[in-house]
Design a protein that fits this description.
Layout: H1 4-7, H2 18-25, E1 30-33, H3 52-68, E2 73-77, H4 103-108, H5 112-131, E3 135-140, E4 142-144, H6 154-163, E5 177-179, H7 180-192, E6 198-202, H8 209-219, H9 244-248, H10 256-270
Parallel strand pairs: 1-2, 2-3, 3-6, 4-5
Length: 271
Amino acid sequence: MEGADLRLRLYQIDLLVYDSILAAIDGCAGVFHLASPCIVDKVQDPQNRRLLDPAIKGTQNVLMAAKEKGVGRVVVTSSISAITPSPQWPADVVKAEDCWTDIDYCKQNELWYPLSKTLAEKVAWEFSKEKGLDVVVVNPGTVMGPVIPPTLNASMLILVRLLQGCTETYENFFMGSVHFKDVALAHIMVYENPSASGRYLCVEAISHYGDFVAKVAELYPEYKIPSLPKDTQPGLLRAKDGAKKLMDLGLEFIPMEQIIKDAVESLKARD
């Protein structure tokens, strides 16, 4: 990477070890807090170091360190999983940034990942209010695109399983897809724009997983893509401008078709 030898420093940190975070943040004007376990499969011990503790305590530690080091703004990567599942949301209203995941519903149904993201984001807003730290939040949907790291993230594993014929509908985990490039741009935009505030839903459109599956089947008929119901997310209203706040900042989202093409072609190149 051009300029990395002069401007890039890498630190190994543990979200549960405060001092390791302090060292990485020292001298920074801004912080992007992306790190949080993303596990949509069943978790046997959700409170352990795999999920809830790193998400919630990790967020607390990052914000405390940012405040201690005089950071100007922290951009927290939350998720649509802090917006949905929200079964009590009015059926005739499009879900937006003012919608929050139902914590009790998550506990009752053992939906530990949405619970972790929701509680972590609430911690961020409470800290911001109490300590006066400037916090802005991005809530990405299912993030896909060309694969860069050696291992696949949870979102890309959903696509891999679909290509293998998986019939899971991800009822409580889907609200729309987004290209990883747009997620990166969203973070930069809300960091650099002084007027940016609050939450920013980050999806190319609010859609159902059934819409995504149908598009994959259309683009890649050579795979045995299962036929799923069109409406896979009960109560979720579709909206092309679901991420209007980011659109108003100037973000032009890569459409679902291109997201799928970039992701699938990248997976094929790995084989």
